[in-house]
TrEMBL record, chains A, B:
Domain CMP/dCMP-type deaminase residue range list: 40-157
Gene3D superfamilies listed in its UniProt record: Cytidine Deaminase, domain 2
Gene source species: Nocardioides flavescens
Name of the featured protein: Nucleoside deaminase
UniProt keywords, alphabetically: Metal-binding, Zinc
Amino acid sequence: MRYCVIGVLLSSVCPRDDLRSRPDSSSAERHVGHRVEVTTPDPALSARTIELALDNVAQGGKPFACIVVSAEDGDVLVEATNQVAQSGDKSAHAEIVAIRELASRGREDLSGCIAYVTAYPCPMCLGALYYAEPDLVVYAASREEEGEHYEDGGRYMRLLTFYDEYAKPVEERSLPAVRGEVDDPTVPFRTWTAEHGDE
Amino acid sequence: MRYCVIGVLLSSVCPRDDLRSRPDSSSAERHVGHRVEVTTPDPALSARTIELALDNVAQGGKPFACIVVSAEDGDVLVEATNQVAQSGDKSAHAEIVAIRELASRGREDLSGCIAYVTAYPCPMCLGALYYAEPDLVVYAASREEEGEHYEDGGRYMRLLTFYDEYAKPVEERSLPAVRGEVDDPTVPFRTWTAEHGDE
């Protein structure tokens, strides 16, 4: 999987002690024991998302990063950056690259994890996070702050209007969509539910 | 890239003549010339998304498929199915698998393409399609029809309430999200825009 190359463990690029030596009143509790829940954001990790995003820009990439850490002990599980410019894959946003990388290592969801991101997720990545189910998302910039300084829209939306598209009825969204004619559109769902519905 | 294995050209599994011999009043115009725009949905392709979804269920997968065709000449560029169950990657919905597969072949967006899907896209895939920019999305089942027969929610949403989450303010969404403290959250965006803003 081509994205593995950017999904590096923080320990390989930034020693844990170095990270933990930064001023950070909220992360100290992580040292107490393995069962301590950490829900207070760690400013050092938000700062790291900014650093990774800047590094990605320097490498020709887009200005976004995502770090997934264990909520239990603060271990960094993956660092990822937006790979759209590098790969041409429009779905390769940092959050999705992180989810893919963790899946490739056998972790199928982010329960028990915190996702640190450069900016509040776009609608695509928000959807991915609803499926992946981290305990918490910590974002450095709001959508509005991002939109003031960055534009990555296209013929169907601008970043500042992207969420508005979701509030519209299907037929009013700028992405054209029509019903196709089929005899029985729900047969795949009924078939799946008959086999898996009680799982 | 692991998803390439399921991104097979239709021509390899279903001869074009076979496809075109099905009753299909709208697709005939595709034979007229290379410059004819095809925006009328082809029922044979919607039926094929149902067939692929059923095949995927038979293989242990989820009941979704996506076929991307050229709007100009009707050529099938990729067939993809949901690979979440097979790969553990929560982002591996059919639409995103198709986008990744086409990107791996050098096609970075879906302009000039029509995306045929089993059901109207979930919020994640809708976002991916806003970025990939197909000319048209053709869906067999509506979200409501799908929701009547299938459930794939989790601790943050049910399928029928998923879009409702997007209409809420950030702080009211069920996926917990908080601001992280950083000195300058927009520096990655300003840096990117300084380099690329006039592209």
